[in-house]
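HUMAN: Now follow token order:
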Amino acid sequence: MTDKLDPAARDTAISELGANGWEPCGDRDAIRKTYTFANFVEAFGFMSKAAIWAEKMNHHPEWDNVYKTVNVTLTTHDAGGLSQLDVDLARKMDQLA
């Protein structure tokens, strides 16, 4: 099981990821970001690439897609909040986008 980030590590991670558009969710210990692509094919391609990495990491996002927009929320349910897995997947998704 992955451990929840301690408050200092959480604050550092949110600060660093915030530079790339990630925001804390106000109602839970999670982060979210909206990606906007040129069209549906690019958005779906991003989701396909991200899904492969999520499976490799055994960590899966909460997400939805409407046309060229992909909304992503990351949290580690087993840990009860943000973990290093969320930080790592967020960084990977930014690379893929």
